[in-house]
Each structure stands twice: as structure tokens, then as C-alpha cells.
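Now for a sample.
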Amino acid sequence: NFKFNHDLAKIKSINKDVSISSVINNEINSLKWKYIYRIFHFNSTIFALYYDDHNKALYYSNNGPNGDFKIATGIPAGVEIRGMARSGNNLYAIAFNNSDNYILGGLYVSKMINNEYHFELVKEMSHIKDYYGISSNGNLIYVATKENGLYYFEDGKHDQIRGVTKFINKNTNKKTNEKRFNDVFVFDNMIFAIKDKNIFYSNGLNKDEFEVINTKLMDIDEITYIKSIAILNDKIFLGTNNGLFISGENAKNKSN
């Protein structure tokens, strides 16, 4: 039961009366003139992803924006880091080069040793190359792939990585076999995986069983699809390529 929360939430290309003024003027010298396309932070550690025509690199600072940014080692040069997440003392990064040659893709893990990050490929998942999303609540981690399914594990237990195989539409009581995903989001014990217009939900207690959530996005048009999910004040927000939607259902009730 998703609907537009407000007319302003549905931004159209004809809306030209939006202006944003910037008051940020403190440039980080160690990243000056570098094209930074994504930023992640975990407590005081900041990761900045750098790109140019010939190279990609993962920079990090353990002392916030005022610290010295170093290059993390272990991840092959030239890959795109699509996401990062933490589980216990482990930090994870998913890489995907978004081409027919997936050889550089992978799930990488690192611990901070002597204040430096060195990433290694998670060997138990080395056969998967097409990672599209990763999310964690600090312990439980889910990773979504373009064509090879949805996986989860806890607290760095790579020998216990499991693939999700149960997707149930409770309205029809039919089970489906889902392999293609666009992203995954974990909020406390609520897990949402997305694929185009579809949302798959688990309450975290049954980590390998997902329910298909029916939304009115199915009735809008053929081109609207979900890009992101957030939870605020017990409401589920969907960011799409055609506006912002809000649930008519309490998110906490959904987790029950």
C-alpha cells in the first residue's frame, strides 16, 4: 500500500525552481583534484572511492576528514567498489566491474592491522563475481547479486554463508525461485531485498525465508522501479526513478 506522500515528493523534470546553496568550503588536501564517486564511514574511519580514466582506488582515513588518506591494498586496480559494510570486527567491500568480464568482481574482507586496511578475497564466495548490494546491522550481513541470488552470514563466519532459497507470496501461497536482485537493505532485524518493482522481506528470525511484499508500484507504469529503501518513524520509504513513496503500513508491525 505505497503511495505518494506529498506532491513535492514526486519530482518531475519540469520542476526548475529548486536551488541549493553550499556552505561547505573545507577541502581535504590529500584528496585534492581527485574524482571521488562514493563515500562510506564507520565511526571515525572514512573511505573515499577514487576514479579516473585509467584507475580506481579505495582511500581511507582513520581520523575522520582531517586525517591522512591512504590507499587500501588487496583489491585489484580497476574495479568499481559498489558497497561496504561492517560485521563484528570485519569490514567488507563488494567489487563489480559492470562488464561481461566479471573476473575482477568479488566479496572482499579486511581487518585493521597496525592502523592499515588490507583486503582479501572471501574464498568461499570466489565463484560469485556480480555483486550488486551489501548491507549489515553490525552482525548479520546480506549480499545481493545481479544473477546469482541472495546470500547471508553472521560475524565473519565465512564457512557458514548461506544462499536464500525461500521466497513466498503469502497472498497466493506460491513459492518462487529468485536469482536476480538490484540491492539489499538491513535495518536492525528487518531485511529488504529489491528487484525492479519487487520487494522481498524477512524479519531476521527466519533469515532464509523471504515474503513477497505487494505494492501499488505494480499498477503505476512499466518504467517505475525501486532504487533505495529507508525506514523513518516506523514508515518504509521507497526511492524510485519516478518519485518518493511511503508505506501505509507500520514497519515494526511488518516485522512481526
